[in-house]
Specification:
The complex is a heterodimer of chains A (220) and B (265). Chain A is an alpha/beta fold and 220 residues long. Chain A contains four helices and 13 strands. Helix content of chain A is 15%, strand content 26%. In chain A, a hairpin with a 3-residue loop joins strand 10 and strand 11. The radius of gyration of chain A is 17 Å and the shape is globular. Chain B folds into two domains: 41 residues, no CATH class; 224 residues, Glutaconate Coenzyme A-transferase (3-Layer(aba) Sandwich). In chain B, the strands form two sheets. In chain B, strands 1, 2, 3, 4, 8, 9, 10 and 11 form an eight-stranded mixed β-sheet that branches. In chain B, strand 2, helix 4 and strand 3 form a beta-alpha-beta unit. Classes of the chains: A alpha/beta (220), B alpha/beta (265). The interface between A and B is large, with 42 and 49 residues.
Chain lengths: 220, 265
C-alpha cells in the first residue's frame, strides 16, 4: 500500500475546499493545507483563511526581511494578509466560529469515535499540563469539521475508535476524517469509507481500523 | 495643556468636570489652571507611574497573543512595582524568560486564567504548576474572550456551546436551547488591564496594529482601570473616528513607550 505522506494528505484535503469557503486551519498538520489551497496555486478559486487570533484572509509566510511581529497566525508563526483581508478582536473572532459562519475547520486529532466525538487537546496523563486553545470552539462552531490525522498510532492501533479514551474536545462534531490510508465520512448510521489509498483494499482497511466501516460504491 | 492629575481614573475625570462647572459658575479660576480650561488628559509619564497603585491580590488582564500585543514595558513595570498574589488573565502562561514569564518567575502570580498554558518555552509556569505553587483555570479560548467581553458589556452570564460534554464543562450548569447544548459561563472582571495599542490621543482613543489587536479592546472594557502602552500619542482629533477601535471611555491611562523599548522584551 502507498500511505500518503503529510504533504499528500494536505493536498487531498485542499482538493475538497470549494470556491468562496471560509476555512480555519488548526495548528500542526492542518496548517500544511494552506500550501495546497487553490488560491496559492493560481487556480482561480478564492478561499479565505481565518486565524482565530483575529485575521480573515491569511496569506503565505513572508520572506525573512518582511516578517512583522504584529502579524502572526494562531500557531504564532509570521504570516501575511491577502488583499481584502481584515483584522478583528478575539471576541469577534470566536463569534465567527461559534456563530456558524466558518464553512470548515480542519483539525488534528488523537482520536475520533464512530459517532464523531473528537479528542485532540489532552492526553489525560497525570503529569500533563492541559492546554485547549480554540479547539473546543472550532469543534462545536464550524459548519463542517474535517479531521486530519494518521490512521494508526505508532504502536499500530487505530485512532478511529468505538469510544475516545482521551478527554473529549467536542461530542459528535466530526464530519469527515482524512487519514494517510483513507477518507471516511462520519454519518448518523456510522462510518462510510469514501476513498482508500492505492494498494490497500477494504477488508484490510477494515482489519486495521477495528471499528465497523461501511463501503461506498465509489470507494476502491 | 494643564496636567492636573498624574493618574486618571474615570471617577477623577468626573469629579474634575464637576469642579470645573462649579468654578465656571462662580467665575473663579479652576485649580492651578488659571488661564486655560482643564482638559481630560489620561497621559501618564511612565509605565511605573501608571501602575504605582496596583495592590497585592489584584486581578490583572494582560493583552497579547504571543508577542503580538504583549505590553512588555507595562509588565516590566508591574514586576518592578512588586505587587504580589496576583490573578492574571492572558491567553497563555508566559514564554521564555521575559514578559508574563518573568512575572511568574518572580512569584507574583497566585492564579492564572488562560486557554493555552503549555508551550515549548513555558518552563516557569510549568515548574510552578507541577509544584502546586500556581493555580490554573483553563478556559477554552473563545469562552475566555467572551467572558472578558461579557464583563465589559455588563452581561451577567451567558450560554455557550463550547466545551459541552467535555471535562472543562464538568460541574457547570447546562441547558438545551433550540436543539443545541450549552454551558453557562460567567464574566471575568479585572481591576487592571495592561494593553498595548499603536496610537492614542489624550482622551485614550486607541488604534491597534494588525493581529496585535487580539484581546486589547475587550480587556480595556473589562477592567476598572485600563493602562495602555502605545507607540505614538497624537493630537486629539487626528485619529480618524471611523478607525478608532477602542473609544476613550474604556481607557484610563496612556503611556507612550518608544518602539525600541517595546522591542527590548
Amino acid at each position: 500500500m502507498k500511505k500518503l505522506d503529510r504533504k499528500q494528505m494536505a493536498a487531498r484535503v485542499a482538493r475538497d475546499i470549494p470556491e468562496g469557503a471560509y476555512v480555519n486551519l488548526g495548528i500542526g498538520l492542518p496548517t500544511l493545507v494552506a500550501d495546497y489551497l487553490p488560491a496559492s496555486k493560481n487556480s482561480g478559486r478564492e478561499i479565505i483563511v481565518h486565524s482565530e487570533n483575529g485575521i480573515l484572509g491569511v496569506g503565505p509566510k513572508p520572506p525573512e526581511a518582511e516578517i512583522d511581529e504584529d502579524l502572526i497566525n494562531a500557531g504564532k508563526e509570521p504570516v501575511t494578509l491577502l488583499p481584502g483581508g481584515a483584522y478583528f478582536h478575539h471576541a469577534d473572532s470566536f463569534g465567527m466560529i461559534r456563530g456558524r459562519h466558518l464553512d470548515f475547520a480542519i483539525l488534528g486529532a488523537f482520536q475520533v469515535s464512530t459517532s464523531g466525538d473528537l479528542a485532540n487537546w489532552h492526553t489525560g496523563g497525570a503529569d500533563a499540563i492541559p492546554a485547549v486553545g480554540g479547539a473546543m470552539d472550532l469543534a462545536v462552531g464550524a459548519k463542517k469539521v474535517l479531521v486530519m490525522m494518521e490512521h494508526l498510532t505508532k504502536e499500530g492501533k487505530s485512532k478511529i475508535v468505538e469510544r475516545c479514551t482521551y478527554p473529549l474536545t467536542g461530542a459528535r462534531c466530526v464530519d469527515r476524517i482524512y487519514t494517510d490510508l483513507a477518507v471516511i465520512d462520519v454519518k448518523a448510521d456510522g462510518l462510510h469509507v469514501v476513498e482508500i489509498v492505492d494498494g490497500l483494499d477494504f477488508p484490510e482497511l477494515q482489519r486495521l481500523t477495528g471499528v465497523p466501516l461501511k463501503r461506498l460504491a465509489t470507494a476502491a | 495643556m494643564c496636567n492636573i492629575l498624574p493618574i486618571y481614573s474615570n471617577r477623577f475625570i468626573w469629579l474634575w468636570s464637576l469642579i470645573e462647572v462649579d468654578c465656571e459658575l462662580k467665575g473663579e479660576p479652576v485649580g492651578r489652571c488659571h488661564n486655560s480650561r482643564p482638559m481630560i488628559n489620561k497621559i501618564v509619564a511612565s509605565p511605573e507611574a501608571a501602575l504605582a497603585d496596583v495592590p497585592d491580590g489584584a486581578t490583572v488582564m494582560i493583552h497579547g497573543f504571543g508577542n503580538a500585543g504583549m505590553p512588555a514595558a507595562l509588565i516590566d513595570a508591574l514586576i518592578a512595582q512588586g505587587a504580589r498574589d496576583l490573578t492574571i488573565v492572558n491567553n497563555n502562561a508566559g514564554n521564555g524568560d521575559t514578559g508574563l514569564a518573568a512575572l511568574i518567575k518572580a512569584r507574583r502570580v497566585r492564579k492564572i486564567l488562560c486557554s493555552f498554558p503549555r508551550q515549548a518555552d513555558s518552563w516557569h509556569f510549568d515548574a510552578q504548576y507541577r509544584a502546586g505553587e500556581i493555580e490554573l483555570e483553563l478556559v477554552p479560548q473563545g469562552t475566555l474572550a467572551e467572558r472578558i467581553r461579557a464583563a465589559g458589556a455588563g452581561i451577567g452570564a451567558f450560554y455557550t456551546p463550547t466545551g459541552h460534554g467535555t471535562r472543562l464543562a464538568e460541574g457547570k450548569e447546562t441547558r438545551r436551547i433550540g436543539g443545541r447544548d450549552y454551558v453557562l459561563e460567567y464574566p471575568i472582571h479585572a481591576d487592571y488591564a495592561l494593553v498595548k495599542a499603536d496610537r492614542a490621543d489624550r482622551w485614550g482613543n486607541l488604534t491597534y496594529r494588525k493581529s496585535a489587536r487580539n484581546f486589547g479592546p475587550i480587556m480595556a472594557a473589562a477592567a476598572r482601570i485600563s493602562v495602555v502602552q502605545v507607540r505614538e500619542i497624537v493630537e486629539l482629533g487626528s485619529l480618524d473616528p471611523e478607525a478608532i477601535v477602542t473609544p476613550s471611555i474604556f481607557v484610563q491611562r496612556v503611556v507612550r513607550v518608544a518602539p525600541a523599548m517595546m522591542k527590548a522584551a
